[in-house]
Amino acid sequence: MTASYLSPRRLIAGRDEHPLGVGCRPIGGPATNEGRPVGWAQVADSSAVDALLRAHALGATVYDTSDVYGLGHSQRLLGKMLAQVPRSSVSITCTVGTYKGTGQHAYSSLNLFRQVEQTQENLGVRQLDVLVLAHADFGPGDRYLEEARDTLQALRDSGDVAAIGMRVPGILPASSATSDPGVGHWGSQLRYDFLFEQLNPQVLSTAVNPLEPQTDYAAAAEARSGESVFSFARRHGAATMIHEPLLHGLLTGKYGPDAAFSTGDVRSRYTPADLEIVNRGLEALRTRFGRDPQALARIALHYCLRRCPDSIVLAGASSPEQVHKNFEGLNAEVSDDDYAVAERAYSTLHAEFARHAASTTAAP
Q: pTM value?
């Protein structure tokens, strides 16, 4: 790794991390939560563990999972990998809040304690490096906010969790229809400031992929009259992680309009028309970089790493071969000309998606 944007990055204080982290949703396999697909295609357990070990051998230090990925299966497979490597060589981030089981609310004290304890058991570890809250819904009138805040502090005090994180949108809206901090969801800059003060997260996680309309987040924030999560994080001294850099794998070009996904696969949300638009829009990149899906993955990952130079970028893992190519691809630098070609292609593809969305909305 010689490009400046591939230097080690910070996740929590005192630790330098490899800039490319490992997303563990794919290894969890198909799953649904409250009627919605939250999983992936079926992956052989042996292949999944081998993929995680290969990533570790190639330098990966950050592994991201969630209690909802495979409803625990992703965590148990990651646990098998963790049993074979030094614990100090790995930082584990785990998202909670999507799955509440039979509890009243995902952020009730009992549910948070239970989910952390179950995650520790699944992973076979004593401490989670970062516990990430999946959303900002703390119930009507923020009923569970104080309870969650005190529980998270207790988890830090006990050493069960080293740091707290939150999943947030890429642009924080400057205002909303209601700016009351008790609205129970992300609503405005005031809401962000309020929750940040209440929960004191050290890490912010957001979805970023190359199809965002502008590569300059400062300009994007200004255009939408809000602040980018990256600016917000720098202002508050928080680290950032980005997930879904390959748009659930679509930006590798592997999935044509006839691709079939199971009901428990998060990619089942994409229509044949969506897949056709992506497949057509990637042709310019295939012409420049080749038709191998891993060549397109390399460009997309480089693009995100360069675009977000302070963030850990999480790429999904499902096979040792895929992982090897993702990490080895970082050794082949992307020139400014290549980056410009990719930027034009992604911008064109975004515009095509926008036109499709507009025409779909306008249809009677």
A: 0.92
